[in-house]
Amino acid sequence: ELPSITGHVKFENLVFEYEPGRPALKGINIEAEAGQSIALVGHTGSGKSTIMNLLCRFYDPVEGRVLIDGTDIREVTIQSLRSQVGIVLQDTFIFSGTIRDNIRFGRLDATDEEVEMAAKAVHAHDFILGLPQGYDTEVQERGNVLSMGQRQLISFARALLADPRILILDEATASIDTETELKIQEALKTLLAGRTSFIVAHRLSTIRGADKIIVLDHGRVMESGNHEEL
Ligand code: ATP
Ligand code: MG
């Protein structure tokens, strides 16, 4: 179990390969203090998503370990890990069902009030009320009721409601209109407050806001520091 963790995360000498002899990570050391926001940047194929895959235990490392509050994540149940590590992916996952169900995903016990509070906090409430049936509007997995930006805000509301100590965010690269973009930036601040976060960052605004920027190249950390230092 991971009882009431603070959210300190350490990637210790991580080595990983998807295919024998082709290492995707070649000895990664990254430390995040509880509550820090870490931006991961680097070219395509540099290993950003792979590090996040290991934190989620979608794979286990070949060498090294991932520690949360000093505990190797291989020593805790997957269920316990999932409750503490939230993930917001680039291709925001919307399933067929109501907006309310989509936000409650992962917190099925949440009340309507809690759902609305989460939506308000990430500035999604107003556009939801503007939909034909508000929170009861049915959306489809691949439907176009929601714009990309709106999908992102729904996924932020979902993550906020789930309230994990550690949050992984693979920032969308899709172009989003300026108004939604500003809402997303605001929402992101709310979502990250008080959590340890790892953001695969594409937006300069996100990178600037991070406590630490990790520059990856071919499975290695090339540079790290904050925006002023780099
Ligand atoms: P991007 O910016 O394109 O998302 P990334 O930094 O997230 O790139 P990774 O997805 O971590 O990069 O990939 C690191 C290396 O591992 C690359 O060489 C990639 O081809 C390889 N790789 C990633 N996923 C797999 C997989 N499922 N099977 C085999 N090789 C993989
Ligand atoms: Mg990736």
From TrEMBL:
Organism: Paenibacillus aestuarii
Localization (cell): Cell membrane
Domain ABC transporter: 9-230
Name listed for the protein in its UniProt record: ABC transporter ATP-binding protein
